[in-house]
Amino acid sequence: MKSVIFHIDVNAAFLSWEAVYRLYHKGGTVDLREIPSAVAGDASLRHGIILAKSIPAKRYGIQTGESIPEAKRKCPGLTLAAPNYNLYERCSAAVMEILREYSDTVEQYSIDEAFVDMTQTCHLFGEPEQTAEMIKDRIHRELGFTVNVGVSENKLLAKMASDFRKPDKVHTLWKSEIQRKMWPLSVSELFFVGRATAKKLFSVGIRTIGELAQADPAYIKSILKKQGEIVWAFANGLDSSPVMKQAPANKGYGNSTTTPFDVTDAPTAKKVLLALSETVAARLRADGVQIGVAAVGIKGTDFSYCSHQRVLPVSTNITLEIYQAACGLFDELWGGSPIRHLGVHTSGVCRENFTRQMSLFDGADYEKLARLDTAVDAVRERFGADALMRAAFLNQPIDHMSGGISREKREADYSGMKPE
């Protein structure tokens, strides 16, 4: 049986979701998708980058990831909307719920993308293109925003197809269509080819996906090492990865945050590390795992970055233990320059039943600390993250549960929203 894989991609997801919410739930009078607009972080907290932009904004050359001042220089009349990740997560869940009505094999690839294996169920609804149109139109009708759907025999080609002309389109990219539809495209448009890789390929005269596909794979490997094998296979439409119903287990856990001010002293930096350790350790305990390696990353105000890691004496998911390791790494790593971004990362995940080996030299009651963490998790789960806060964070500008999606991006304030 010929495989049938769909790739669903929400068009300008954050911007679309924000536009629909404002129109249908907040009394908005103008569709953000139809004017130069963008979803962007709070510049006062140094999160001021463009997260998503409308098609009219794109015509001004505005790009995702650039700063608000850069975008404003290109389009002084740009309308900005604050991000609301709680809303976006609900919108994403609504899309996945619809997709699971068509197949029980749905892989959420990101908050706004999913793969659906329709091989066993497509015949229940019609031909592949007809079924894809049905899903696309239903999402638009029921949820108010548009998606692109790519249809093919494997995940790679389905994803490439969904990136063809947007928005609100269905495109196929069967293997028989590769030479006509994919090979003429720039090599920079191939999945897994970033700017650095594209630059290397351009430098040796390989400018299109077709030229990459027809090149000697050994030659490509000599230029790009291991990645060369992958991109050459992708250029030829080769991909054997299955659609996974369940996400693979995490190989590591981490969180980082951009501080709202330059950090210039170790005590303040260590408060940030404590807040990050709180969120990382809570995620470890929620998943029932421990980690054996801790790492700290520091980004300076000049955007230079450095990191340092350490293998722990024993695997752990105790907040205080992870924090102490992070502080030790920080002391070894930091040279005194102003800091704008800090991260706590872990690896060496242990999922087996774990019993700590007691030591005569232990200076802490780890069993007691573990019980304390469990109690704190339970209280925060029931009453919210702010129900319990360490005294070190009282009257401090540092969020006691930092990292990941920052607090101001969790819930946007629409009280001052004016008709556009």
Task: Summarize this structure as a short list of keywords or feature phrases.
420 residues; 12 strands
- The number of helical runs is 15
User: How would you characterize the largest beta sheet?
Assistant: 5 strands, mixed
The rounded distance between the terminal residues' Cα atoms is: 52 Å
The amount of helix comes to: 25-40%
Question: What quaternary form is this?
Answer: single chain
Report the uncertain regions: none
Number of strands: 12
- Read across the widest sheet, the strand sequence of neighbours is 5-6-1-7-8
Radius of gyration: 24 Å
Q: Give the strand content.
A: 15-25%
- Chain-averaged pLDDT: 91
Structural class of the helix and strand makeup? alpha+beta
Q: Overall 3D geometry? A: globular
The H-and-E topology, N to C, reads as EHEEHHEHEEHEHEHHHHHEHEEHEHH
Describe this structure in words.
- With 420 residues, the protein is an alpha+beta fold.
- It is globular.
- The protein contains 15 helices and 12 strands.
- Helix 10 packs across helix 11 and helix 12 runs antiparallel to helix 13.
- A hairpin with a 2-residue loop joins strand 5 and strand 6.
- The protein has a 5-stranded mixed beta sheet. It has a 4-stranded antiparallel beta sheet with strand order 9-12-10-11.
- The longest helix is centred in the middle third of the chain and has 21 residues.
